[in-house]
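Q: ABC transporter permease, please. Structure only.
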Amino acid sequence: MTDTVSAPPAAIARKGRVRSFVARLNLTTWIGLAIITSLVLLAVFAPVFATHAPSRQNIMDPLIGPGGDYLLGTDQFGRDIWSRLLFGARYSLTIGVSAILLAMVVGTLIGMIAGYLGGRIDIIFMQVMDVVLAFPALILGLALVAMLGATLTNIIIAIAFTATPAFARIARAGVIAQRDREYVQACQAMGFSGPRILFRHITPAIMPEVMVMASLWMATAVRTEASLAFIGLGLAPPTPTWGGMVRDGFDNILSAAHLALIPSMAILVLVLAFNLIGDGLRDAIDPRLKDTG
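A: Structure for ABC transporter permease:
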C-alpha cells in the first residue's frame, strides 16, 4: 500500500503501458522469442552440449550420416556437424546482434539530428544515406569486407554500415512527426535545450518503431553474414560459421546433402524467429496494422 501511494504517477503510468504492450504481443512473437532464447542458450553453453571439439578432424570418419556417435553426422574432414553448429551459432548471433545494434545507434542518431535540425544538415545527412541505399546491401557488404579484411570486427562494421540508412530514415521520419507536437512546443517554451528535448522527450516516442526495424534487420544481418561466408569472405577456417558450413557442404551436395541442408535449416530457423518477433512487435505497437497487413 505504501509503495503504491509513494510511487510517482509517471512510474505507475509507465508500468501500465509496459503491461499493456506485453498483453498485445501475439503468439508468433512468443514463438520467435522462445526460438531465439533457445538458440542463445545453446550458443552460450556450446561446450556443454557439444559432443566433440568443433575443429577436431577424424580422417577415419568422413561424411558419416546423422546418428550413432555423431548426432548430425560428420563433414568431409570428419568434424562433428552438431558441435560445429553449436559453436557456429555464437558467431551468427554475435554478428547479427552486434551489427544491428551498432547500425541502430549510429543511424538513429543521424536521423534524429537531421530531422530535428532540418535545413542543410537534414539535406546533407539524408543525401549521404541515399547514396549508401543506392547499393544493394550484399554487394556493399562484400566490397567493404574485401577492402577491410574478413575479421569478426570488420564483418560487423560492414553489415552495420549497410543497415545504418534504414535506421536513419525511420528515426528522421519519427522526429519530424514529433517535433511540432504540443509537448515539444511546451518544452521549448520552458527553455529546455535542444538535446534535452530530442533525447529525453522525443526519443522515447520513436524508439518502438526503431526496435521493430532492429528485429527485422537482424534477420537480414544473419543472411548477409551467411552469404559472405558462402562466397569465401566470412571468418577464416577452421572457425565454424553456418554460412561456411553451407559452402563446405555444397561441394558434397550429391553424396552428403545433410552437410549443406542442416546449417541451411539453422539459418532459416534463426531468420524466421527474428521475423516473427519483428512482425509481432509491429502489430503490438500499432494494432491497426493487423487489418491492413
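A: Brief note, in case it's useful. The first helix runs from residue 2 to 6.
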